[in-house]
Amino acid sequence: MDDYQAGSLDPNIPLLLTLGVSAGSIHEAKLGAALKDQAILIRSELPALDSDQAHALLGYIEDHDASQLPANGRDTSRRYRFRVKTAERSFLLPPRRARLPDGVESPHLSATLHSPFSPLSPVSPLYPDGLMDAQWILKHQDLVPSVLLCFYDLVSDPTLATLCDNRLKTDLNNLRGLLSQSGYKTRLAVVLFSDQDSHSVDSVQERLEAIRRACAIDAKSLFLAPSGESPDELERMAENMLTTLYGVAIEYFRDLGRHSRKKKARGVVPQPTVSPTSGTSQTLSLAGWNVRYDFKSAMFAEYRLELGNALLSFEQAYENLLGPELLEAIPSWSPRWNEARFLADVIAVRCLRCLLWNGQHSAAARRWQSHRDRIAEFVDRRGRGISNYGWKAWEARWAIVMANLIERTAIPDFTPATMNLYLQPEKNVMGERLQPWELLHHTGYWYHLAAKHLSARRNLAHAMSEDDRRPPSSSPASHVANKAFTYDTYMCPDPHDEYPLNGAGGVDHSRMIVDCLKRARSEFLKRHQFRFAAELSLECAKELALVRDWKRVVELLRSLWRDMSFRSEGWLAIAEDLSWALRSAAAAVGDADLVIAIDWELLGQNFTRRTNWHYDITRSLEGIAPKFKPSVHIEHGELLPFVSPSFVFRDEEGKAGQSTRGQLAIKSNAQQGSAPVVLKSIEIEFSGSVGRVVLQHQAGAATEPRKHGSVALSAVSLTDAAKDGAISEVENLDESNRKLTLHGNANLTLLPGQTTVFGVDIPLREAGETRAVALKLGFESEAFDLQQSLYFGSGINSSNLWYISTSSTKRVARAIPLSVRVLPRPPKLKIKAPAWKDQYYNDEPIQLEFGIVNDEADGALAKLDVDLFGEDTPVFSIEVVGQGAGDALPSSTVVNDESKLRGVSLGTIESSKALTVRLNVPPIERSNRYDLTMRVTYHLSTAPGTPILQTALLQLNVVNPFEANYDLLPRVHPDPWPSMFDYDGVNGLSGGDDDGNDGSSGSGNAAHAASTTLTNMSHKGISQAWCLVTRYASFASEDLRVVDVDIRVQTARTVRCFHTKQLGVLPPADEDRGRGRLIRPRTIVEAAFDIDARKSTLDGRSPSTLDVSFVIKWTRCHPDTSSSEVVVNTTTLPVPRFTLFGTEPRVLASVSHIPPNPPSLNKDNSSTRTPQLAVLHLIIENASAHFLTFGVSMEPSDEFAFSGPKQTTLNLLPVSRRSVTYRLLPLPRPPPPTPTPTTPSTNKALPPTPATPGGGAGGTWIKPGLVVRDKYFQKVLRVIPTEGMKLDKDGGVLIWIPPDEEEGETRSGEKVEAAE
Fold first, then answer.
1. What segment(s) does the record annotate as region Disordered (predicted)?
2. What element of type H or E holds 346?
3. Which residue, among 282, 315, 285, 281, has the nearest Cα to 298 in the 3D structure?
């Protein structure tokens, strides 16, 4: 677009000119000398503002200049669009009426003067019959503002306000008068900067209204900027102001468009100021004036962003311009011909912009092609044809215009992120059969098209004859005239300037072509069109080579040559062309490494043989003098090798410690007649224990191969360089040291077309897969060194042939002949666990012993790896018996549920010897199952390079040896409750120590004996007694001995607890059985503990929790340790949390028995015996702070007689308890059947035991009819039984009456427990 006149193709944006603020850059009108003398000076007499607020507002306006905004209709973020220019206090406007030039007299006094941009004015270059030029377009874009925005200060000082306001009015009226005299309709707007803040602006409203009326300013064009505005408020004010002014500017261009349409509607050709008299000149026809009016209307509509109306007017002007009355009537030799073509291009470009703005992309592509075809037909028919460089220059320019329009439009669907190559057509044309070029492609397509036309332009320019290239001064007049009708020079130089005869100057076609190709390549790369981008790079390099810019050629093609996909896809012709072009450039700049690499690739027969080329790699650097000896490294895949290597193992399987046979075949595909390539070394890399095989070049009879035809076969002897080295420690045998490196000598001369085969014996060491991975070819000459890496794979190792001799081969029928499977050497070292158990238990240290037995014929240098897998794996340690006594034992590390220990040295285990390893595991708290893996890696002294592995997998089961259930049964505390109404007790409460030893617990008889004393000293609250009954069972797989059982009690700080074990929990120690109780698997044992609890104060009435743990100390009957000391293990079982000291009333029942007296003789010598009595105590506890009343009644029964209140009322004070006593005499009758006792917690029958009432012979259960009722709530309270009592199935209380016989009496010391 640079070839078009400035501004002719720019988008139309209203011009906003600011006046009154000092600025660094001042707008100067671009007027010619003739117009500058007639220009109108618009000047303000007041000084320019220099305040921070004025500069901030002006800066914001300038930052929102829309000159570079995308020209598309999707950008709705802006409510206004202005082209902003700045002037301090004056600027020039072009004259509205041009004066007559000197020497020209008006034919009559009433002659009308016209605009200097009109063809009616003699000073215009369009006079008398021109259509339109770029000066009129620049007039509205850069010379005449649509809005003049003036900045002034508004002084608030009362003494100066009137004076300043008058000066401001005078200056504004002066500006308005100058604008009116100029004839332009520029809108005037004013910004006043007040020195008052926004809270005081109401006081200046009258002054603003007076200024507005005095200067005839529109209310929408006067703005006030108070002082002290924040940047955000100032920006908001500027946004609103510019939005308002944009509406004013739209009205300005709407008036101009209306005026243009009125002129066209007159249908009259205006008369020029002076009629043309020279030659055959004539004025512009009516059709020409209609084109002007349509063009103006379209331009003004474009200013208003009415792109639909603008497109209609542009199309109408375009059709009239190319109609028979205008362009068809203009002779091609006339300057008006090129002016008309220029106007057609401008109209077409603006039509394209309107279509792109409205999103009509396919229509824009069609419109571009339509203008190109129509102008081509017109130029070919009426002009100088389309077979000259001028037409190709226009085609290139037209393609660049389209690319620039797409870039300026910034279509969102064309961003590189979308990866769109072209846009889909609009809905209204989807049904049509569109050609590919009728779709809108990205800008790379258009730049590439321009490059093609520029190349054709250069070819046509270079095809011109020498006579046409001579300047006019050295050519005859007839030839000059003939040349003027031969070549189209529209917007391009004449032939002698296009391609001068002397070669100096002229048009730099290569630079323009390279510039377009680079832009196109960039766009194709952004959209991952790598092949197209590579093609453009090659074209660009050829253009640079024409101008011998070798450095840029190397920079452009180096990465493409290394990374291009032409080789793998088979485009070898392109690869060859690129390689020769890059080699020429690299040789010219002295890039020795690149030259060597290219020559190494071009040796292959895949490329066309060039005549007169040496094809000798040793002569690659002829004519190049590098400073240092080059060393080139070529990685796999960087270029096509001229050799085809393959490797084959003869056997599919092998064993560690043995050798296997392999063959390396290298076929040279060098050009026929090329010089032999003598390699320095060949290195084969393997995976597995075999590291690499290195073949060194050695010429001589010893290494001379057997040859037959095109095959050369050599048997290479390999030696291990580290074979004599001794390995004494296993720790030194890491991965790098275990890699085997073998060396051999052979003749490494590669002849063109010859296959060289090397046979090698490779020792196998480790089990697994050994595979030939890569090949390195080393070449060395006096001039340079080269090394190429090749990977064995399906593409390179295409031959599965095994060479039996030079004349016979066989095919290896394996899928992967590159690899051999190495079987492990069977280990004879054994891992034994003689004392392994199926179960180990929680809370005991686990000691596992293993025996490492060496059944090998030689000594073994071994190391041990241990892995323990499972949840919450512990840290263990390893002890090697007999080694490192006194040293710290190595411990494992835990990572992600895996505890592992690596590299425990076992030293050398001699043949037929054993070593004991002890694994120590600390006590484990939770039951779990672990997987134990033990790996012993050892090396025999006779084969230190071959590792042997022995593995043992074991399962470690850790279980809980015991499980238990629990019952907390209530008991009657013997101590009385303290009274809140006892004066001495209240005083004792205040002196008690509530903080000392709270929540502690004691055990044993001593603690129980001292409980009363300690409690009285420190705790004065209510007390309760309980019995915790535990039933524990052994879940072990063997007999265990329980040494001791106990409980740990933890309560709140305000409660003190003591506990004692009941007699008979454990049997006494015995010399034969040992201490404790022998527990067999699945055996249930019961233990009971008495708990005494007391609160610290009477004020604490909230319930308290009781946290108890059941502790079992036990040992194994047959310990696994060799030590004589028996290890006592402690297992702690959690007990469910219980709640003590509830706030609800509680009724307890306890019973005691009065034994019968001995029999006595009566008077009649008969003996009588006093019957046994049962004393029933009913205790009611009131732990609340309320006065409660209870009714107690005892119903008569035929089972017993009783003495005591049959019906009574008990009044209980707060925090108190009372008791009622009954004496029960069982009546003689057969005992009833024993009811089945139940427990509230499990509701299951309890089996009778010797310690349980009812278990012996005789005796009976009686059921007293006790009823306790809360008289306030009329609620019956449940009676809770204690020792010697139980509940029946109906919730009543049963009392056990022992038999009268002596053998049936209850044993002394035994306690009777009943379920609650």
1. 988-1007, 1226-1258
2. helix 335-357
3. 315
Tokens encoding 380: 């070919």
The Cα 643–Cα 628 span in angstroms is 28
- The percent of residues in the chain predicted with pLDDT above 90, rounded, is 43
| Alpha-carbon distances of 405 from 340, 440, 567, rounded to whole Å | 22, 12, 38
More confident residue, 143 or 797: 143
Q: Please, where are the H alpha helices in 687-818?
A: 735-738
**CB distance 446 to 369 below 8 Å:** no
Going by DSSP bridges, is the β-strand pair 785-791/768-780 parallel, antiparallel, or unpaired? antiparallel
Distance between CA 908 and CA 1058 in Å, rounded? 61
- Cα 1290 from Cα 306, distance rounded (Å): 99
Q: Check if the beta carbon of residue 986 is closer than 8 Å to that of residue 980.
A: yes
- The tokens describing 1258, both together, are 């005789």
Q: Is there a contact between 1043 and 1122 (Cβ–Cβ < 8 Å)?
A: no
Token pair in block for residue 145: 């503002």
**Residue 49 pLDDT level (bands cut at 50, 70, 90):** very high
Asked if pLDDT for residue 1103 goes beyond 50, the answer is: yes
Residue 1100, φ and ψ in degrees, nearest 5: -80, 100
- Cβ atoms within 10 Å, residue 236: 12
Kind plus residue range of the DSSP H or E element containing 849: strand 846-854
Q: What is the pTM of this model?
A: 0.63
Pairing between β-strand 1173-1182 and β-strand 1216-1226 as defined by DSSP bridges: antiparallel
Maximum distance among all Cα pairs of the chain, rounded to whole angstroms: 188
Q: Which residue has the tokens 């009714």?
A: 1191
Query: Cis bond leading into 471, ω under 30°?
Result: no
Q: Which token pair is 346?
A: 């401008």
Alpha-carbon distance 450 to 401, whole Å? 10
The count of other CB atoms within 10 Å of the CB of residue 905 is 16
Residue 1073: CB partners within 8 Å, gap ≥ 6? Answer: none
Distances (CA, A) of 112 to 264, 273, 405, 976, 993: 19, 5, 41, 134, 123
Q: Which residues contact 845 (CB under 8 A, 6 or more apart)?
A: 920, 921, 922, 923, 1127
Q: Give phi and psi for 61, each to the nearest 5.
A: -65, -40
Q: Vertex 1036, ends 1032 and 1040: CA angle to 5°?
A: 75
The tokens describing 730, both together, are 């296993």
Report the C-alpha gap between 384 and 390 in whole angstroms.
Answer: 9
- Cα–Cα distance between 1120 and 920 in angstroms, integer? 13
DSSP 487-502: S--TTS--HHHHS-TT
Q: Nearest CA to 1085 among 1254, 964, 970, 1246?
A: 964
Give the pairing type, strands 740-746 and 749-750: unpaired
C-beta of residue 466 within 8 angstroms of C-beta of residue 500 = no
Residue pair 652/771 in contact by the 8 Å Cβ criterion:
no
- Which secondary structure element, helix H or strand E, spans residue 467, and what is its range? helix 466-469
Q: Please state, in angstroms and rounded to a whole number, the distance separating the CA atoms of residues 107 and 1277.
A: 137
- Block residue for tokens 């305000």: 1054
Q: What is the pLDDT of residues 518-552, one digit of tens each?
A: 999 999 999 999 989 989 999 999 999 988 999 99
Place of tokens 């930052």: 63
Rounded to whole angstroms, the Cα distance separating 366 from 319 reads 16
Q: Are the CB atoms for 432 and 424 separated by under 8 Å?
A: no
Neighbours of 477 (CB within 10 A): 8
What's the pLDDT tens digit per position in 833-864? 888 888 899 888 888 899 999 888 888 899 99
How far is it, in rounded angstroms, from Cα 1294 to Cα 1232? 12
Inter-CA distances, 215 with 195, 282, 778, 995, Å: 22, 47, 93, 94
Find, among 755, 759, 716, 723, the residue nearest to 740 by Cα.
723
User: How many whole angstroms separate alpha carbon 1146 and alpha carbon 1024?
Assistant: 11
Reference 383, options 334, 456, 344, 348; nearest CA is 334
